[in-house]
Specification:
- The chain is mostly helical.
- It is about 60% helix and about 0% strand.
- The protein has three helices and no strands.
- α1 packs across α3.
- The two termini are about 15 Å apart.
- Mean pLDDT is about 80; it is low at about 85-105.
Length: about 100
C-alpha cells in the first residue's frame, strides 16, 4: 500500500470515529479517547518511534480527533444530528471533497 493510500485510509477511519464520538454525550467520550491514545501509541512504537515520541504522537492524534469532534458539532447545527449520514439541507459538500476547494492528497 502506498503512503498516500495509507494516509487516506487513516483519515477516513479518524473521520468515522470522530462522527461516532460527536454523536455521544460529552461525558462518555473520555474512555474512547483513551483507547485512541493507546492504539496510536502502540502503532507508533511498532513503526520504530521511541516510547516518549510515541506518547507525544498519540497525544497529538487524540487532540486532532477532539478538534474534529468540535468541528462536527459546530457544523451539524440544528438541521442534522451527528452520525446521520444524510447531507444537511444547507450543505451537500463533505469533508475532503473537491468541490469545497480542498486538494486531494
Amino acid at each position: 500500500m502506498s503512503v498516500g493510500a495509507a494516509l487516506e485510509q487513516l483519515l477516513r477511519l479518524i473521520h468515522r470515529r470522530a462522527m461516532k464520538l460527536a454523536a455521544m454525550p460529552e461525558d462518555e467520550r473520555d474512555p474512547h479517547y483513551d483507547l485512541i491514545r493507546l492504539s496510536c501509541c502502540a502503532a507508533a512504537e511498532r513503526i520504530g518511534q521511541s516510547p516518549d515520541k510515541a506518547a507525544i504522537t498519540a497525544n497529538d492524534m487524540v487532540e486532532f480527533v477532539r478538534a474534529l469532534v468540535g468541528i462536527i458539532e459546530v457544523g451539524c447545527g440544528s438541521d442534522q444530528r451527528p452520525g446521520d449520514d444524510r447531507p444537511a439541507a444547507s450543505s451537500a459538500r463533505h469533508f475532503g471533497s473537491r468541490e469545497n476547494g480542498a486538494a486531494r492528497i
